[in-house]
Amino acid sequence: MTECRELLAAGIEHINALLKELSTEPDGFWGAHLEACISLVAQATSEMEIQYQAKLRQARERFSEATRRLSGAELVSSLSGLPTATRWPIAVPAECPACSHTGFASGRDKTGEYGAIWFLPRHFGCQLCGLTLTRWELDLAGIKGQILNDDAEPDPDWEPDFETY
């Protein structure tokens, strides 16, 4: 049921973004269903935040347990440089929101205008505490897309399409 609600909420948010681009008010499109759509999106967002916080708590517990068994320096040096296995071709170091050590965001690249190459994260994993985050949870963790090549001069008004795979 939760997955269906998340999917419906994502669809509603996508349609609302399109309506905004078309300068159309959502109430004109959704009509009598506007309140139901707003409620569904809020509920799905609340559930995602609860799941995200639960994942953080579990990862912190795993990290605490692991550090009790090994010395902290030994554990960090042996695991912090290892990205978790994913299907995405690029891995970029990122701070873990659970244990504050280095984990890896993995995803894909996308060439933008003026030669800018964007990294679009789709997964995060930390070998130290075992935290894994998926696409929607990345926003809650503050793990966002970024330009990979600093020498490019992108258009400041252009933003990558983070919704496409």
Q: Provide the structure class.
A: alpha+beta
Uncertain parts: none
Largest sheet: 5 strands, antiparallel
Q: What overall form do the CA principal axes indicate?
A: flat
Question: How many separate helices?
Answer: 5
Distance between the termini: 24 Å
**Estimated helix fraction:** 40-55%
Number of β-strand runs: 5
Mean pLDDT over the full residue set: 78
* Helix and strand pattern: HHHHEEEEHE
**Rg, nearest Å:** 19 Å
DSSP strand content: 15-25%
Characterise the protein shown here.
It is a single chain. The chain has 165 residues and is α+β, with helices and mostly antiparallel strands. It has helices spanning 2-21, 26-30, 34-69, 72-79, 135-141, and strands spanning 90-95, 102-111, 117-125, 132-134, 146-147. Strands 1, 2, 3, 4 and 5 form a 5-stranded antiparallel β-sheet that branches. Helix 1 (2-21) crosses helix 3 (34-69). The longest helix is centred in the N-terminal third of the chain and has 36 residues, at 34-69. The radius of gyration is 19 Å and the shape is flat. The chain starts with a helix and ends in an 18-residue tail after the last strand. The mean pLDDT is 78.
